[in-house]
Amino acid sequence: MRLLCCTLRDAGNRSGPQSCHCEEHEVLEMARFLKKIQTTPKRPEEQEKKLDDIIAEARRHQELRETTYRERALKLFPWICARCGIEFSGKKLKDLTVHHKDHNHDNNPLDGSNWELLCVYCHDKEHARYREANESNESANHTELETPPINTPFEGLATLLKNKK
Q1: I need a surface site. Which of 10, 37, 41, 163 has the fewest CB within 10 A?
Q2: Residues 6 or more apart from 74 whose CB is under 8 A from it?
Q3: pTM of the model
Q4: Could you read off the pLDDT of 54-100 as tens digits, one per residue?
Q5: From CA 98, how far away is CA 127, in angstroms rounded?
């Protein structure tokens, strides 16, 4: 089965399927785990080993997901859209996306300086503006396209830290 994320990733020259950790792939992986559980061997020793293998594989997938830039961004930044200021939590967190400020999806610094969290609607608007600017042969300089975020959660942090010392 060819998922949309794979098609988009391949169009953007991303590396192989191991680099995609979207929700659709997680669901497929969970289905594979469930299938393995249903087809466990009949002997107790083999069942225990099979379950241990499944748990180990699940842990590997969890570690892999934690290393993705989305997971890192969710740990670094508050779960608030940087444009419209809507706060996300629980099941709605999937609607919060990581936007690459320089539009280069391969530029993923560990400090998150190239990322901002945007809701899916603001993210779509941002990319639409970027495409329109490129299509109309205007300057593609991102600083000209960037609108100041409405919500700045770290504004004044440096002052507070200085006062604490």
Answers
A1: 163
A2: 93, 96, 117
A3: 0.48
A4: 888 888 877 776 578 888 888 899 999 999 999 998 889 889 999 98
A5: 12
The ranges assigned to domains in the chain are 22-66, 77-164
From the list 132, 129, 111, 109, the residue with the least C-alpha distance to 121 is 129
Q: For the chain, give the DSSP string.
A: ---HHHHHHHHTT---GGG---HHHHHHHHHHHHHHHHT--SSHHHHHHHHHHHHHHHHHHHHHHHTSHHHHHHHHS-SB-TTT--B--GGGGGGEEEEETTS-TT---TT-TTEEEEEHHHHHHHHHHHHHHHHTT----HHHHPPPPS--TTTTHHHHHHHH-
Angle at the Cα of 36 from the Cα atoms of 28 and 7, rounded to 5 degrees? 20
User: 54 exposed, middle or buried (CB, 10 Å; 0-12, 13-18, 19+)?
Assistant: middle
